[in-house]
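Newbie here. two chains, one complex. Structure please?
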Amino acid sequence: SYVLTQPPSVSVAPGQTARITCGGNNIGSKSVHWYQQKPGQAPVLVVYDDSDRPSGIPERFSGSNSGNTATLTISRVEAGDEADYYCQVWDSSSDHPYVFGTGTKVTVL
Amino acid sequence: EVQLVESGGGLVKPGGSLRLSCAASGFTFSSYSMNWVRQAPGKGLEWVSSISSSSSYIYYADSVKGRFTISRDNAKNSLYLQMNSLRAEDTAVYYCARVDRRYYYMDVWGKGTTVTVSS
């Protein structure tokens, strides 16, 4: 089945830019979605279809997807952005169509 | 307000059974596919099972296939997960989530219900 690989952790200073990668075979051909999860809370969708934002999500969250890597970018990082982030794709050719990445812990220094 | 509320979690012995429920409100439940997603303590998100709007298409993760059964009752705006032959590794917070009809992302999540499998 399809595998999505993320770095376990990313550290960033307040006001700087955090980039979280999500690697998968030819992931650029798929639609990638990103979730933010804070401790003790349910995940929240922050980017869908590679680069679109749901209403209420700040413009500081953006996404891109090409080749074998999708990227979630958080600009002007704030303390409140500290959380776990997961990528997700839908693999239409599989009996296990919903695939999550391994997750990345973003730490704001 | 669009909302999903899970219930039915608890402590169960290995080999036991549990039935989770997810009550939907604020949207046309019968128009959406629904997922169950779980998260073991300190671990990442794991997709468990999916059911289409009319129950025509059902999928399971290999880790639960043959033990768990997903179902829904559109008249009651409810989603279910029957969990049998439970194992310690099924210990997790279980979330239900609504699936977008076009891009298959999960845009609405419940707060989760905790299942603990232990003797």
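Moderator note: The longest strand of chain A covers residues 83-90. The beta strands of chain A are 9-12, 18-23, 32-37, 44-47, 61-66, 69-74, 83-90, 98-100, 104-108. Thread marked as resolved.
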